[in-house]
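Sample entry was shown:

___
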Amino acid sequence: MSMDVSVVIITRNAAATLSRTLDALTCYDDVVVYDNGSTDDTCSIVQAYSNTTLHHGEFLGFGPTKRAAVSLAKYDWIFSIDADEAPTKELNAAINDWVATATPQQAGKILRENWMLGKPVHHSGWGNDWLIRLFNRNTGNFNDAAVHESVSLEKNTEVSQLNGKIEHLAVNDLAQFLDKINRYSDLRASSKKLKHYPFALIFLKALYAFIRTYFFRLGILDGWRGLTISVANANGVFWKYAKNNVNNRL
């Protein structure tokens, strides 16, 4: 399989999952890995693959950092993937076929299947997760969002759904989940756009985040995984606003 597509990945201490990701990308000849200060074996893993190039840079927030990585790609067609994700063979074949006839005014939307502790989660806001991950950098790129970044496209860009999926190992252990909540809440709390609320209202917003995930988004159907995700979402909401309040009082 020969594709004029660059795969772009940003990493930081991703050794636990990165080999799985890179194994699934051997059909691409340009895999750009932009590392943000890993202290584990991430960089040595990258260097073991002949189709990868390793770059180093600071973390600027997810959106700006991914844009920096995109700028280092060999090709204009960009397939963005995270270090805990892997495309299926069906998806790689679909990308190959699609890019062969696509124009820069088109982009590809891909289904991401989110896994938690060995099992896919189908509800809790984690199911039906379609994301634009294939685009031409002349007509699209990542936005400025520090967290929950997305690809911004020029108007009139045609978006197609591709066959196959990205398998996302979202949570491999609960300690990792807690670390992610803490890191993401730090990033959100640093946003100048975040509003300030009294702590009583912050508590109510966190409670609503739990209710929305567990009941409205049917987390109850995901068993203990759904309950865990619902509690985590509530914690994320509470801590981002609490940290924002404290940061602005210092």
Notes: The longest helix spans residues 223-247. DSSP finds seven helices and eleven strands in the chain. The chain has a mean pLDDT of 96.
